[in-house]
Amino acid sequence: MYQEGSCFQRGRLADISGGNFSSKMSQSELELLKQGVGAPILVPGNGSPSNTNGLIISWVENKWNIDIESYLKERFELVSHRKLSFNKEGRGVLLRRKGNGENIWVSHWKGGANTILDMCSHYYDWEGQIHEIENQKSEFEQVIKKIEDNGMRAITFAYKQTEVKKLVEDGLCLLAIVGVKYHCHEGMKSSVKALKNAGRSIKLVSKDKQSTMRAMAGELGISCPVSTETEHPVSMLKSLKQKDNVVAFIGGWTTRDAPVLQEADVGINITTWSTEVTREISDIVLTSGSSFSSLITILESSDQEYRKIQKFIQIQIISNMSALLITAVETERLGESSLTIFHVLYLNLVLAFLGGLILVVNPQHKELRSNRIGKRKESIITMLMRINILLQVSYQVIIFLVFHLDREALHVPGVNPMNQDVRKAMIFNGFLLCQVFNHFHPLLDSGKNVIWLFLVPFTGLHVLGFIELCFKLTWMQWASCFLIAVLSWGIDSATINLSQSS
Questions:
Q1: Dihedral angle at the C-alpha atoms of 454, 457, 459, 461, nearest 10 degrees?
Q2: What is the C-alpha to C-alpha distance for residues 461 and 464, in angstroms, rounded to an integer?
Q3: Which is nearest to 121 in space by CA: 160, 162, 154, 179?
Q4: Which of 29, 99, 334, 486 is 20 to 30 Å apart from 367, CA to CA?
Q5: How far are the Cα atoms of 72, 198, 319 from residue 309, in angstroms, in the given order?
Q6: What is the pLDDT of residues 107-147, one digit of tens each?
């Protein structure tokens, strides 16, 4: 997710940029700093170092040309380890030097700058001398504030050597304050930009200070940074959901993210940066942590699937409502219907096949749509869909009832007078073509040859001709059926274009 750069602030005031201070450090102080940085590696089941800790370890390894894991495992054994309480950031590790008959244990602590600083009573100066913090503590707090004001995350390292086999939390000696600055991959920035362009609102949530958050959010182009110091993520999610928003949360770095992942409508987790607990409760687990491009792909696919389902529902409603109204009016007026039970069964068979085809094909060009995002309680049938359904049903019912009820209103050349069998055949074929033409847009978007739309239903009509589904028509009568269907397609196209433009 991030590329990071770091700078060190020693146990007293100095330039935040650090400088070449390694030559000023005593050997014993340098040894303690290496231990403090690498100690979490020795914790069993800790997996790969966190992104921040991994950077600091890499910095130390490059600075002093050592493999810190081998360095520690050869010299020290892990005695115990512990994290601070839920609302405090920090981890302690108790080490003992191998092959040393002396009963001396070293407690190393690393974590939130102010949290660990409050646990310290002494600090190292540049000459390797230990002094009491006393009035210097306010100066260290200013150092931390300066680091955070520069858009960096402040981390403190401290230790204490004792003759008691116990991981102590007080009376520590301050070793270093580290400032870590987050620089985002260009891929991450482009992903955020794509989401914003598609109308998604993005909030950056972190336990860092507001000043650090603003710097990080500014680099990503996010205008809504939220610090967990001022608002708990679960409360924020509940507030967003109460405002009828659909909320996705990307997290799982620590087990503290578990309640947030559960509260979100969609919990998203990245394997390489997460814990086993958070992976188990997440709805989506991304196997690659190199970038968020896979998340964009998921959103593009879900967007397309949602719209295909909308189209399928719309076609089913139009065909069923039109057939029901035509049959009801004809039966009430004439005592019979031009759409028999066999017509309806065959129509449903064709629409099920073509509807299934819509659901499985994918558009040639996937991209996140920039139109308005639906709310969590919003119906899947939008207002434009309702308008299209109303227009299509009204058009089909009126045109086909006129065919059947007003025998002189629509006289088609070639049959004079138009007999009842021809009239029923034209109503059925015209009605079938209207539904077929409504499948055009999703299949054309997928690059599929729409000839299948005609081969499937009319090959079936030929095979099932013994049921008298299709009476023989002249080419002029077929042209009339196609013209009716084209006008229906025009209504569908108009509403689709209106939806995309809005």
A1: -130
A2: 5
A3: 160
A4: 486
A5: 58, 20, 16
A6: 999 988 888 999 999 988 777 788 888 878 888 988 888 88
Distance separating alpha carbons of residues 472 and 172, to the nearest angstrom:
97
Q: What is the largest CA-CA distance in the chain?
A: 116
Structure tokens at 1: 């997710």
DSSP code at position 244: T
Could you read off the pLDDT of 190-218 as tens digits, one per residue? Answer: 878 888 887 788 888 876 666 666 767 77
Residue 357 burial class via C-beta count within 10 angstroms: exposed 0-12, middle 13-18, buried 19 and up = middle
Work out whether the CA dihedral 242, 247, 249, 255 comes out positive or negative.
Answer: positive
- Whole-angstrom Cα distance, residue 371 to residue 423? 44
List residues bridging with 158 in a β-sheet: 109, 174
Three-state SS across 73-102? HHHEEEEEEEECCCCCCEEEEEEEECCCCC
Q: Are 355 and 315 in contact (CB under 8 A)?
A: yes
Residue the block writes with tokens 């219907």: 337
Per-residue burial over 405-442, b if 16 or more Cβ lie within 10 Å, else e, is eeeeebebeebeebeeebbbbbbbbbbbbbbbbbbeeb
Residue 97 tokens, joined: 């030097």
Tracing tokens 């499937």 back to the chain, one arrives at 456
**Strand bridging mode 120-124 / 172-184:** parallel
Strands 204-206, 76-83: pairing kind: unpaired
Please identify which residue in the block is written with the tokens 């001398």: 129
Q: Give me the DSSP letters along 271-293.
A: GGG--HHHHHH-SEEES--S-SH
- 91: tokens are 């981890």
CA dist list (Å): 187 to 55, 151, 289, 325, 472: 20, 21, 12, 54, 61
Count of CB atoms situated within 10 Å of the CB of 268: 19
**H-type helices in 338-474, by residue range?**
341-360, 383-405, 420-437, 440-445, 451-463
Measure Cα distances from 109 to 22, 27, 133 in Å: 21, 20, 17
Q: Which helix (H) or strand (E) holds 131?
A: strand 130-132
- 301, 286 in Cβ contact below 8 A? no
What tens digit of pLDDT does each residue of 297-338 get?
A: 788 788 888 888 888 899 889 988 998 898 888 888 877 787
User: Exposed/middle/buried for 107, CB within 10 Å: 0-12, 13-18, 19+?
Assistant: buried
